Amino acid sequence: MRGASAGPTHQRPTVTELRLSAFASHRAAVFPLGPVTLFAGPSGSGKSQALAAYQALAALGSGSPLDDVFRDPVARVPETAVPDADGRRGFRIGCTVDGPVGPVRLDLAVQAEPELRVVGERLSQDGQILLSTALRDPRRRSVQAGWFTGGAVGVTRAPFPDDRLGTALLPLRVAGSTAGQRRVLAAAEQVVVALRSVFPCDPRPERMRGPVTPGEGRLRGDCANLADVLRRTRHECGTRHALLAAAARTGCAGPVAALDVRVCEGEPGGGDGAFGAFQAARTGLVTGLLDRGPGRPATELGRLAAGELRFLALALVLLTGPGVLAVDPAAELLSARQALTVLADDLDRGLDRRQSAELLRLALLSGVRGHIRLVAAIGEDTAETARELPGVSVVDLSP
To answer: Whole-angstrom Cα distance, residue 24 to residue 22?
Structure first.
């Protein structure tokens, strides 16, 4: 791994390490994660699997059940894993979350065969086990959980469901009446906040070309509603919208004076300009445009190349935050105290070196502010550029 450096104390809960003890092609793998972390390597080296593990932890931290998170769990079991006497095989993943209470470790063991279930979980800090779960009776759909209480009791025990992340359940189970319980709650909440603050992003150009119905203006993971989000940022986030337009001058062919939207012809409330966009928010479909400048016709997004559309969507993601992206971060914590992590598999798909370099520049710009982090899988051309950039960590998975 190149470009990693010891950073300052994390004031926002952040995943700083991903551990794949036994997951797909990974064995005993530990990946430090910085503000911009890029996985590089040939096809089949495990780049996508690493991001899939991170995304799975994020979904579990948000309360999703195992069968929603792992649709094909057997594919996550290492090929060399040998079943035990009862035919059981599985995988193990984990992470470290740094933040106001210091580094907290989460480790999870999942059984994939003969049925999907949690068989063990551990939440720990500074060598102290704060939560541990274990499958005691395979006939029951529960695990035995024990969490640190302190005082005369020491440890509190209770059954937890075997299809959920126990750490995400702790705020509902622990009263916080002792110093030990408050420590457990603080650690669990830090982990949950970091895992919930994740935005998996895979822009799909074929879904971004047509007019869209105005909505709440929160970008979806496939970026199909890009035009609606441009409508919103144009009127609510002038500074960021201007930064996006500046990025478009680098990533899109031809002159770009600005990014604009208009109501589709024939729709109620039609018209250009601010009033037309306002009416579109109420009644009509909207389409995104590249303003080519005085005397030049605007270009609809639907006429752009696939790489240009992917570039625009990813640039928008890196320049915004939870208020614009379709994520559900912890409502009990101010957004200024949260860091959003963007997960992008095959980040540079369909992009040229100029576009990829501009996205890395935007990622570094956002990473310095501490609000946006990027974890992505990239091709070798982008990796060559990234290795020369201070502040970018490249994880090389080449054999």
So the answer is: 7
Q: How do residues 184-217 score in pLDDT, each as one tens digit?
A: 999 999 999 999 999 999 999 999 999 999 888 8
Nearest to 313 by CA among 210, 185, 227, 191: 227
Name the residue with tokens 């009791």. Answer: 153
Characterize 231-268 residue by residue with b for buried, 16 or more Cβ atoms within 10 angstroms of its Cβ, and e for exposed.
bbbbeebeebbebbbbbbebbbeeebebbbbbbbeebe
Nearest alpha carbon to residue 3 among 376, 362, 392, 380: 392
Q: How far, in Å, CA of 295 to CA of 219, rounded?
A: 32
Enumerate residues 6+ apart whose C-beta is below 8 A from 302.
209, 210, 287
Q: Hey, what long-range contacts does 354-358 have (CB within 8 A, 24 or more apart)?
A: 354/250, 354/251, 355/250, 355/251, 355/307, 355/311, 356/381, 356/382, 356/385, 357/385, 358/247, 358/250, 358/251, 358/311, 358/315
Kind of pairing, strands 104-113 and 117-125?
Answer: antiparallel
What SS3 class is residue 122? strand
Beta bridge pairs of residue 90:
111
Residue 389 DSSP label: S
- Global pTM value: 0.90
- Highest mean pLDDT pick, 144-153, 185-194, 258-267: 185-194
Comparing C-alpha atoms, which of 218, 287, 298 is closest to residue 254?
298
Going by their DSSP bridges, the two strands 372-377 and 36-40 should be labelled as: parallel
Nearest-angstrom CA–CA distance, 1 and 20: 16
100-143 pLDDT tens trace: 999 999 999 999 999 999 999 999 999 999 999 999 998 999 99
Q: Is the pLDDT of residue 334 over 70?
A: no
Residue 169 half-sphere exposure toward CB, CA atoms < 13 A: 20
Size of the chain in residues: 399
* Residue 336 predicted with pLDDT over 80: no
The C-alpha atoms of residue 73 and residue 76 are separated, in whole angstroms, by 5
